[in-house]
Amino acid sequence: MNFAATLLKWFKSNRRSLPWRETENPYAIWLSEIILQQTRISQGMSYWERFMAQWPTVNELAAAAEDDVLKAWQGLGYYSRARNLHSAAQQVVKMGGFPQTFKELKMLKGVGDYTAAAIASIAFGKPEAVVDGNVYRVLSRYYGIETPIDSTEGKKEFQALAQALLPINEPANYNEAIMDFGAIQCTPTSPRCTTCPLCESCIAFREQRINELPVKIKKVKQRERHFTYLYIEVEGEIAIHQRGTGDIWQGLWELPEAQQLASSKESVWAKDALLLRKGVKHILTHQILLADIYLWLPKVRPQLPSDFIWINKQDIDNYALPRLIEILLKEISTQ
Length: 335
Known about the structure:
- The chain has 14 helices and six strands.
- It is α+β, with helices and mostly antiparallel strands and 335 residues long.
- Helix 2 (26-35) crosses helix 3.
- The longest helix is centred in the N-terminal third of the chain and has 16 residues, at 80-95.
- It is elongated, with a radius of gyration of 24 Å.
C-alpha cells in the first residue's frame, strides 16, 4: 500500500471531528484556518464558535467595526491576524464572494500558500497540497529528508513532494489526513511509532533518527523590552490609549507608560504610586517583555498625551487589550 493510500485508510479510523470539517462553507473553513495559524485547536475552537455566532457570514464580519473584531480576538495573540481577517472579509465582499483558486485566494490579506491550499482543497476540491508543520515533520521523517524546512531550498522541496503525493481525486481528505497524522500519530515528541502504519517503511524509524528530523537552521532572536505601566485612577475613571502602527499590539488599548507622563509630574507619581508587581514576564515570538505595574491615585488628572481617554474603570472589559495588560490588570483587581 502506498503512502497516500495508507494515510487515507488511517484517516478513516482516526479523523478528528471538527465543526469546520462538517461543512464546505469557505467562510467557516477560512475562519478556522486563520484562527489556528498560531493557536492550538483546543484553544481556537471557542473563538471559532464565537466568531461564527457573532458574524455568521463573511458580509457581517466585513461590516463589523475593527475594534469589535479585535475584542473578540482578545487572548489569541498575533493581532495582525485579526486585522488581516477583517480586511480580507471586506475584500471577499468586494469580489462578490470567495475566490476559488489558489492564486486568487492568495490575494486575500493574511492568506499565504498553506491557507490558500487548505481553502482551495477543502472548500472547493482543488488539487492543492498543504504544507504546514505537521506535513514537514511527517514527510521529513518518512523520507529521511535532511534539507532544513526553514530554508528556501527546503520549502521548495517539501512543497513539490507534497504536491506529487496528493491524490487529485481526494485532495481534501488527504490534506486533512496528513495534518491529523502529524498531530496525533507522528507528533513532535514521543511519536506513536509502535502503532504507526507507516513505520516499516519510515526511514527515520528504521535509522533511529526520529528526534533529528525535521531539520531547522534558523533560530528566532528575541530582544528584551522593559515597560513601566501606571494604573491611574481619578474619581472612578482610568486612563487608556490605543496603540498606533509600527509596533506590537497595533490597535489595542493599554495603560499609560511612565515615559508618557509630563516630565514635571514624574517625581509626583514616583513618590505617591504603589509598586504592585515588578518584572512581569510575557514572551512573544521575537520579544521578551518585562513590565512593572504601579497603582497611582492622584486627586486630579495628570497631564497625558492627547490620544489618551478617561473611561469608567468598570468599562475596561469593553476594550481589546494585549495579554500583558490583562495580566497587569489582574494585579489591580486583587488590591
